[in-house]
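User: Here's a structure from my thesis project, written as structure tokens. My advisor, Dr. K., wants to see whether a designed sequence matches the one we expressed. Can you design one independently, without my sequence as a hint?
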């Protein structure tokens, strides 16, 4: 199994090879961490990882908040939803699972391998789940309120393994 340091180095190398600028990183999340890509590169990021999506229809607030999520083996992000954004995730390395539901009860679990994508609606409950090795996920947000774009505080946690 790969180590956290190795997976972050791989993600940073991939972003550099693709010409993306990492403006922030967080390696201290209990489930793994993330890399934030320069918003000015959002169109190129969306084209690289989500070429089938209509980029202009996604840009309600002129932002996509591109990120790379790195989820550790057998770790789960909180069971959560958002008031001001929808999200699109694409597994770009490894395998992940995603629990989703339109209610507060976890129900369906989808398994994604490299190249698979999932679209999460505004308000849809969801949880990213690590499998047997690290998973790497490209993420963009569809901000649903142009005058008040979503941010990291726009998370309603219904359950969290880490007591947040």
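Assistant: Designed independently from the structure alone:
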């Amino acid at each position: 199994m790969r180590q956290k340091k190795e997976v972050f180095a791989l993600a940073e190398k991939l972003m550099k090879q693709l010409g993306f600028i990492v403006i922030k990183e967080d390696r201290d999340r209990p489930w793994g961490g993330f890399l934030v890509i320069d918003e000015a590169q959002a169109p190129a990021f969306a084209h690289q990882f989500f070429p089938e999506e209509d980029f202009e229809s996604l840009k309600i607030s002129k932002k996509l908040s591109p990120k790379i999520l790195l989820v550790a083996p057998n770790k789960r992000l909180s069971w959560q939803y958002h008031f001001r954004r929808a999200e699109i995730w694409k597994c770009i390395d490894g395998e992940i699972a995603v629990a989703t539901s339109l209610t507060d009860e976890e129900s369906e679990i989808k398994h994604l391998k490299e190249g698979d994508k999932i679209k999460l609606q505004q308000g849809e409950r969801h949880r990213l789940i690590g499998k047997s090795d690290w998973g790497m996920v490209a993420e963009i947000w569809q901000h649903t309120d142009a005058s008040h774009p979503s941010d990291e505080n726009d998370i309603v946690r219904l359950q969290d393994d880490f007591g947040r």
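When you compare it with your expressed construct, this may help: The helical segments are 4-17, 42-49, 55-58.
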